[in-house]
Amino acid sequence: MISVIDITERKQAEKELHKSEEKYRSLVENAREGIFQSTAEGHHITVNQAFANILGYESPEEVIATITDISHQVYVHPDDRIKILQIIEKEGSVKGYEGRVL
């Protein structure tokens, strides 16, 4: 017995997902604002070029490799990170929060 499965729809969905991911990546990488993602423990996962520039680093990779404790190596007031994490826990995201960085 031979089975034939049409995967056209799945392939189209994968193509659209890839296109959407590339668009998002381009927006983040080319943003003028500093954007980053980090672990709850204080390590960067992703950093865009603008954020690296703000901190005085040459590249996002350098930020990720060099900064091991965001609270103390990025923020003027280490408690700012704690406040941000509390806002995320309570509201799910942070908008409009301004903190001073080193």
SSE class: mainly alpha
Mean pLDDT: 90
Largest sheet: 2 strands, antiparallel
What is the topology, as strand order, of the major beta sheet? 1-2
Q: What's the helix-strand series?
A: HEEHHHH
Rg, Å, rounded: 19 Å
Query: Which spans of ≥5 residues are poorly predicted at pLDDT below 50?
Result: none
* Percent helix range: 40-55%
Overall geometric form: elongated
Count of separate DSSP helical elements: 5
Distance separating the two termini: 68 Å
DSSP strand count: 2
The proportion of strand residues reads 5-15%
If you had to describe this structure to a student in words, what would you say it looks like?
The protein is mainly α. The chain has 5 helices and 2 strands. It has a two-stranded antiparallel sheet.
Topology of this protein?
Blueprint lengths: L7 H23 L5 E3 L5 E4 L1 H7 L4 H7 L3 H4 L5 H13 L11
Antiparallel strand pairs: 1-2
Task: Tag the structure with descriptive keywords.
single chain, mainly alpha, elongated
Quick structural gist:
The protein is mostly helical.
